[in-house]
Specification:
Blueprint: E1 7-16, E2 19-25, E3 34-35, E4 38-40, H1 47-59, E5 62-76, E6 83-96, E7 105-112, H2 126-134
Parallel strand pairs: 1-6
Antiparallel strand pairs: 1-2, 1-4, 2-3, 2-7, 5-6
Length: 135
């Protein structure tokens, strides 16, 4: 069994008032599930720039990265080749725009932080990380 390497990626935690920006994944991994906009960090790109770029590509929202909130692993070794993403959660400040699904997002919307525990199809740790950014 041949395995690749862990891939660095960002997730953008963008708050506006009492809500956080979420996307429903349109492509694997986690297709159909709700999570933060994000994706792979390109060679030579900073974490902050990657979070801002991925948010714009997936949602049309312009944001400004503020700081790193947390780091998580997304690992699935059940099938060959599997995947391992090292996710860096970046707190971002909303600048402008309304969510419109783009790139690999099937849907994008503001979701009240208070509704996250009951949000259907939410990816593990999304509610916890969203609350870190709301503090």
């Amino acid at each position: 069994m041949t395995r690749g390497r862990a891939v660095p990626a960002v997730i953008a935690v963008v708050h506006r008032d009492d809500a956080v920006l979420l996307v429903r994944r349109g492509r694997p991994p986690n297709v159909g599930a709700w999570g933060f906009p994000g994706g792979k960090v390109e060679f030579g790109e900073t974490l902050r720039a990657a979070a801002e770029r991925e948010t714009l590509e997936e949602t049309g929202i312009r944001c400004a990265a503020v700081r790193v909130l947390d780091c998580l692993d997304s690992i699935d070794l059940s099938d060959e080749p599997g995947w391992h993403y090292v996710l860096v959660a970046v707190l971002c400040r909303w600048v402008e725009g309304e969510p419109v699904a783009g790139d690999d997002a099937a849907e994008a919307r503001w979701v009240p932080v208070a509704a996250l525990d009951d949000w259907p199809g939410i990816i593990a740790d999304v509610a916890r990380v969203a609350r870190l950014g709301a503090e």
